[in-house]
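Changelog note: in this version the structure field was regenerated for every chain. One regenerated record is shown below for reference.
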Amino acid sequence: MWQALFIMFIAMSMIPAGDTAGKLLTTEYAASPYFVAWSRFAIGALVALPLVRPETLRLMKDWRIWLRALFLTGGISFIQTALSTAPLADVFAAFFIGPIFSYLLSVLFLRERVTPLRSGLMALGFCGVLLVVRPSLTMSPGLLWAVLAGLFYGAYLTSSRWLAPLGRPGSLLFTQLALSFVMLTPFCWNSIPPITTEMAGLTVISALFSMGGNFLLLFAYARAPASSLAPYIYFQLFAAVGLGWLVFSDLPDAFTIAGLILIIGAGIASASLNRRSS
């Protein structure tokens, strides 16, 4: 179990690190957020090529696989847009509306079991997101993009549960990367920036750290039950706060800290409920 926890810590640190590199690309090198997302999918698809099997091509003919890739494309593109203008910790906190939205979609469309206590915890987590976002006419556009990214990612999570029986995990992984690359290509073909050594390095780091973190999740889940590891997903928020401070000198304000506490507390309590009921 301790080995799985260590892997989770590394994985949940790598994902915000990849987005930190993406933020540097958009803020310091004026790269388009869509280019950052597009290059991430391109590099990921190349790395995942050995996973291609005959069933992979069959899956790519299924409209549901394209819909799932569309949700992922929107989620990654919009979070990169959010990161180009808003602090890392704030974006990740607002983005965590995704699991809440996924819960609602799973109840409505997948008929998953709903309990009053878990619904209350989801509502508490939503209050945490509201504390971070603070909706108003003058709110940061970056946080609006982060919420939109979270909604798309929540739909992606639910569709992933829905489509999990269709094929092997490796085939499903490759299809989402390749199809997202295809979907973004028309938006990026004429906006590829001049590639310098620094930009190339950050682009590769952005892609490999993000993909590496998600690959390490598979290793962690192979060593411990998913319900036991679920609370440690929130390592991402701690990593985002730390990286935002170290790289961009951004520290969350009191409202954002309170929101982070609510999101993390509600998420851990909800995961604990899942573990007890499984």
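Spot check on this record: The mean pLDDT is 88. The radius of gyration is 18 Å.
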